[in-house]
Amino acid sequence: MDCNQGLIRFIVRITLIAALCLITVTAQAVARPRPVACNGSTYLSPDGVARCSIDFHFTGTCDPASGKNELARWDNSGSAVTSSTGVAKTAIGPWEDNAISIVGLSVAFANQPQGFQYAFVGNSYNPDPMLWVSDRVTNYDFASGFWFQLPGRRAAKPLDYIDFHVGCATGTYTGFLTVRYIINK
User: Fold this and answer.
1) To 10 degrees, the CA torsion angle through 170, 175, 179, 180?
2) pLDDT in tens, 38-90
3) Cα separation of 124 and 159, whole Å?
């Protein structure tokens, strides 16, 4: 074998290796999930699935006379609705056009009220409550198959909403709710 044949074989091998690498990289790029259009933010979960998240800010004042369940007020929700209590902005109506599956929730109190007894995130469309809040910060991702549903704006009824219940004695509270979800097809 002369030098030219060896060089040609080397070039053919390098070209084949480069082509295989290009095919592999292209296949991996095609296999990755594409980001979805969310009204919140889009992120990739650890399992590589495109998910959405949206943050809401809540505030509230405890009623020392009753010490009963209070509904937090959402002060930045463009989709806030009047809940069954008749008090504006105590509920978050659907914010996506299509139905969603809520896959996780996080609640962070900036300050908890005095005499804090309990808090939970409720969902009037699905069984209420979705998440019991046990501390200043509570974070939970639901197992697949145990996700909570919320209809889209197009199919929502007046009582399809998310709310936040707080049992407390006195004082005020404020914090944030993050809803992690996927858009149902």
Assistant:
1) -130
2) 776 777 777 777 789 998 888 888 877 765 667 777 765 444 443 344 445 67
3) 7
Of the candidates 62, 60, 146, which has an alpha carbon nearest to the alpha carbon of residue 110? 60
- CA 168/CA 64 separation, integer angstroms: 8
Quote the CA–CA distance of 53 and 178 in Å, as a whole number: 7
| Model pLDDT, residue 2 | 63
- pTM here is 0.70
Show the tokens assigned to 146: 């145990």
Return the sign of the alpha-carbon dihedral for residues 177, 178, 180, 183: positive
Domain ranges of the chain: 1-31, 41-183
Residue 166 tokens read as 């707080």
Query: At residue 73, what is the residue type?
Result: R
Residue pointed to by tokens 């806030």: 80
> Quick one: CATH architecture of 41-183?
Sandwich (2.60)
